[in-house]
Amino acid sequence: MSYLVKPGRTGWADTGRTLYQLRWLGEPVTQQLRPEEVHAEIPDGTWDMVWLCVSSTALRGSWLSDLRNAIGGATVVSIGQDLHDRRVLEEFWPAEQIVQVVPSLFAYSAPLAGEVPAPGIAYWMPLGSTLEVLGAGADRTRSEAVTTVLRAGGLRARLTTRAGAGEGIAALTVPYIAALEVASWSLPTLRSEVGPAAEASAEASAIVAAQTGVRQRRAPKFVVKMTLRLLPVLTPFDMARYLEAHFIKVADQTRLMLDDWIAEGEARALPVTRLRELRSSLPARATM
Fold it and tell me: What confidence tens digit (pLDDT) does each residue in 78-131 have?
């Protein structure tokens, strides 16, 4: 497997990276990732699949045209969940070449708080969770191949034709992430003021449902509060630190999603009051 990374981040090509599979009970399972190649520029070659493991804002970059010219007919796999990510990709590749995967695991540069013995990449897949591989629109052979690769890596994966599943999950969750940023990444503060975030989530979910036809089942506020209370003890890592570290890194994506929901909601004459209030509460840029 080869990797395309940002300039200056190719130093692990020879040494590889240490992976830690976190477990709720027991010590992390240590694994070694040994890449075939690590590149800072798009290399020549023939590829079976190209996985776009980047934020939605990164997909708006000019580099996609260079990638399109280099990979030919390789399957393009996206984990993007913004309302318009699919449309962006279809400007460069035909729909049948694109496979969407709905992520359901946590991964980050460790350690956050001493949960692993040495620096590496920690990951955790909650018990019973499954990665959904969207087969609608894509050539089914491509979707099946992506599912097979994920299972070969020890992950649970299943084919689905439920277009908009990832976008629906983002609509449910990202407004809470934005509200958490406004609350200075304090889970207790968000829990005590969860109402506006829940209403923003409802607005975003209605907008995604209007565009995609997929309706997500929303949890009542008391369930959200209970979840926020239990999160720190249900995960084998410091959830509050993870959320802050990860979502500051992709803060531009949070703002992009809010902006897209607001614009789409206004175009469809759907309520966006809470989304607007949440968006205006966020600073222009996140800071550590």
Answer: 999 999 999 999 999 999 999 999 989 999 999 998 899 999 999 999 988 999
Strands (E), 36-184: 37-39, 49-52, 75-78, 98-102, 106-110, 120-124, 131-134, 157-160
Neighbours of 263 (CB within 10 A): 14
d(CA 10, CA 43): 13
Q: Between vectors from CA 57 to CA 51 and to CA 59, what angle results, nearest 5°?
A: 40
Q: What residue segments make up the domains of the chain, in order of their start? A: 2-160, 166-281
Q: What span, in angstroms and rounded, lies between the C-alpha atoms of 122 and 30?
A: 9
Could you please state the CATH topology (level 3) that the domain comprising 2-160 is classified under.
Rossmann fold (3.40.50)
Cβ 241 vs Cβ 255: under 8 Å? no
Contact yes or no for 31/21 (Cβ under 8 A): yes
Let me know: does 45 contact 2? Beta carbons within 8 Å: yes
